[in-house]
Fold:
Amino acid sequence: QVQVVESGGGWVQTGGSLRLSCSASGTLIGAKTMGWYRQVPGKQRELVASITNDISSNYADFAKGRFTISRQFAKNTLYLQMNGLKPEDTGAYSCYAQFIVGPIGTYWGQGTQVTVSS
Structure:
């Protein structure tokens, strides 16, 4: 059974930085795609960024230029470096890992809270 666990959330002032980490364990198979979604107050859940196993990344417009997604493929470990944080980035950030072989399916973590104060 694949387990996805996030870490690295917390509180930061406007303009600050945080680095989120995510690990998908329980399989030796590499995930096809890993990424981050977020749920901010008053809005629907939205994609932040994702990266495939051929190193193709995709960013939401609000993340471009401020956030960087990276991945350790051998360990199914994912990172999200967030710089220039704004109060509107406050929310719950969840990691997912999508497998197309082996444990086929999409697995989600519980989420980690990011709070940006003005």
The mean pLDDT is 96. The longest strand covers residues 91-99. The CA atoms of residues 30 and 73 lie 7 Å apart. The chain has no helices and eleven strands.
